[in-house]
Amino acid sequence: MYKINNLLENDDIRVADSKAGMKVIEYLSDLSVMPSTAITAYYCSRMNVRKRQLLIELNGNEYTLSSGAMQWFVGNIEAVADVKGVGDFLGKAIKGSVAKEGAVKPKYRGNGTLILEPTYKHILLEDVSSWNNGMVLDDGLFLACEAKLQHNIVARSNLSSAILGNEGLFNLKVSGEGIVALESPVPREELVEVELQNDVLKVDGNFAIAWSDSLNFTVEKSTKSLIGSAISAEGFVNVYRGTGKVLLAPVKNLKASNIATLGV
Asked: Which residues contact 107 (CB under 8 A, 6 or more apart)?
């Protein structure tokens, strides 16, 4: 038997989203500051730069976490490594390295409350079943999910899409029926969701943070001729073709974000 005080009932904390036993809690103001950082903390809270954490309530079920994401838990919860032997570990280590993900994603099961490490990024809760054959993620987005979801590494259909598209050769794909938590540098309110029905989306740069695995991703010239591409000053564009969804950020080069300077 346990009771958690001064968390969800704290007037400085609000629940920003809640799905499948997962709650995104957000600190409205950063009160853990010194006089030298108080001004920065004040303006950060006004500009939606806030600490966020994922809270998971386990009721006899199981969740998969990004390696190192757990902060603390209470209750009858068991942590297990999803590894079936040395060969399985080596295989997952190789897959994790090519997709820039942790080699082993730990699973937590039982009954209790689990809290993940705080972040200044935005935590998105997405229904994977609505993403046409699975959701392909940009590097570093995966945070946690219901353990019933499957994880696979998918490769580009051709080498040019990796080299010219600046998206990497391998990505993590999450598929099945369930909810996944993503750690995004951009809030959900600013992400544009493009739904395609046997159509084509062309993007000049790496603005896409997630897309349906049902889409065919290639890199092509922006126009049919090299001269036309030179005149348009666009060169090559990322092309998503078929039926599915693409999640677009308003800015690119998100990996170079200054979020790290805030100490998280």
From this structure: 62, 63, 64, 65, 79, 80, 81, 82, 147
